Amino acid sequence: MTWLDLIGAVGVLLAITAVIGGAVAWAVGLRGLWLLAAAPAFFATITAGAAVVAPWLGLGWSLLPVAIVAVLIGGVSAAIRVVVGRRRPRTPVPPRRFDIWVLIALALPAAVLVWRCVEILGAPGSFSQTFDNIFHLNGVRYVLDTANASSLHLGFMTSPSGSLAFYPAAWHGVVALIVQLTGVTIPVATNAMIIVVSAGIWPVGAVLLARTLAGARPAVAIAAGAVAAGVPAFPILLLDYGVLYPLMYGLALLPFALAVGVGMLGVAKDSPHLDAGWWILVFAGAIGGMTLAHPGAFVALLALSAPMVCAVVVRALRRRGWRRRALTIAGFLSYLVAGVLLLKVLRPPLGARGWPLSQSMGDAVLTALAGSMWYQVPAYAAAVLVILGIVWTLIDRTREAWLMLAMYVIGAWLYVVVVALPIPNLRDAFTGSWYNNAPRLAAIFVVALLPLAAYGAARTWTWLRARIPADTRQRVPRGGAIAAGVAAAVALVAVAQIGAVPRAVEWASSTYRMTAESALVSSDEYALLTRLDEEVPESAVVAGDPFAGAALAYALADRRVLLPHALVEMDDARTRIVAALREGRFDAAACRAANEDDVRYVLDFGTAGVHGPIEGYSGLGDSSQLTLIDEQGDARLYELTGCSLAG
């Protein structure tokens, strides 16, 4: 696969996002930047929703069920708008002029993030050599094989008994669509998704959220774009650690959901004029796909939107009328109860929440202020802008400024708690919904700090501009002012790249480089996998240690594997087969199990595992029941030929 294949996959993903998500957003009545930010959110909701509904309708996974759902929702929305428009005349709203500064604010971070993604990937078909990627790459293959992308189905790949009843599958469903529509490999389709989410969805949502809270000023948009590309805890960290692709998708959609919540609650500085019913529909379109991308993003929405909800409650309680106040209190209590219940329902099991503390309380606070989460190098520009935002909040004391500061405090508090709070029960109460895992909270913190940083930049720019005499400003030609503004925007984005970003790119890049000593799949092992489709029949199942990377024969070579992930449900047959592979000897029971599961080939990728040395299958080379078919370096492919001799 070439870079042209990757560019084509990116183009296809952008096209279907614009056509499907954009058309529905247009039908709902969104325009301009709101339309641009809504398109990927609506596309995610429509795609993930269609994936759940399609099996009930007897439809296999493809663009067809997605298109059907989009036409239904868009058509009904457009029809309602026409009928309502005829019955109730609306006050015409003057159309907004094209804002060149928004375009610049989006183009600069998009270009920088594309560049950073390409640096990290290194090659169009590279893939992250990390533990979680075994599941994510194989999950896409499972969607393609079963023609089912439902979040109620993906868990069956590793838990055939149904014990994993729900696994957020929005990411895997979209990547599968890319494979279907373009014919590229799963790694190339995954990389196309990485680029679109990181350089497209994220900066658009970030700029929209900042403008919604801090106002539609050019400096707000420019600063938001610079910060979006300048704090590597999101999105780069989630490309490095894990990898956490589904959470990255969900958090990239989070700013739009927050902006919708702010607009719907009536505490926005800048938002479209929509009736309550349309706001509710837009909110549903925002949170559906985000939640099915990763529930952790929805819990983050609950946490970061709390200041807005409290502001609305306070405003309502100040109004006269005991009935209004009683309804407000009842609604707020219902909100709290629902939030607590959702936190418990969406919380992962206790065994998955055991991540340890990593910093002292003082160091954690300094890390949060410096924006140096995980990489321990300050994000200088963002840190300065946040401090300016705090200062201007204390000076201006406007409602919107307090909301941005409150959002920042919540994000910082969650991060400090997860890395430093030495009270286990209290720590788990606050951050257990995100596995008590520092990288997840660091990524959420970036969303929380971004509006305040943009506000700090814009308010400082306004103050500095006011210091320039009016006659001096008037003497500057318009073209010169625009050129100076563009230069300042480029400079800010460039300065935001100083500090943490280069280290983050360096660390993340190492996980995408395939070498002779790669943690998951070495260059020799990959070479053997590329020949697998010529040597292993489609009907056969391949056994191998998933910790050594053998499980990726499923995603990379399109051959079924006995263990598609390291954390797979082990039944009696799998247990017997794995035990036989460890010993290099298949008894009658193990042979029966192998025959029942169609296991006819074995990959031996040695004792180098993704998390360090593993036991491996050391006895395979001496087994009379296995015949060597192919080898590349230390990687070997065997055929199980001697089971008829057992028993």
Helix content: 55-70%
Estimate the global geometry from the Cα principal axes. Answer: globular
Q: Strand percentage, roughly?
A: under 5%
CA radius of gyration is: 26 Å
List the helices and strands and how they pair.
Layout: H1 3-28, H2 32-53, H3 63-87, H4 100-121, H5 131-146, H6 170-182, H7 186-214, H8 218-230, H9 236-240, H10 245-265, H11 276-293, H12 295-304, H13 306-317, H14 322-345, H15 361-370, H16 380-396, H17 399-420, H18 424-431, H19 438-466, H20 470-475, H21 478-496, H22 500-511, H23 523-530, H24 532-535, E1 541-543, H25 553-557, E2 560-561, H26 572-583, H27 588-596, E3 599-604, E4 608-609, E5 612-613, E6 626-632, E7 635-640
Parallel strand pairs: 1-2, 1-3
Antiparallel strand pairs: 3-7, 4-5, 6-7
Word description of this protein:
This protein has 647 residues and is mostly helical. It folds into 2 domains: 3-90 and 97-508, no CATH class; 523-645, no CATH class. It is 64% helix and 4% strand. The protein has helices spanning 3-28, 32-53, 63-87, 100-121, 131-146, 170-182, 186-214, 218-230, 236-240, 245-265, 276-293, 295-304, 306-317, 322-345, 361-370, 380-396, 399-420, 424-431, 438-466, 470-475, 478-496, 500-511, 523-530, 532-535, 553-557, 572-583, 588-596, and strands at 541-543, 560-561, 599-604, 608-609, 612-613, 626-632, 635-640. The strands form 2 sheets. It has a 5-stranded mixed beta sheet with strand order 2-1-3-7-6. The chain has a two-stranded antiparallel sheet with strand order 4-5. Helix 25 (553-557) links the parallel strand 1 (541-543) and strand 2. Helix 2 (32-53) packs across helix 11, helix 4 runs parallel beside helix 21 (478-496) and helix 10 (245-265) packs across helix 19 (438-466). It is globular, with a radius of gyration of 26 Å. The two termini are 47 Å apart.
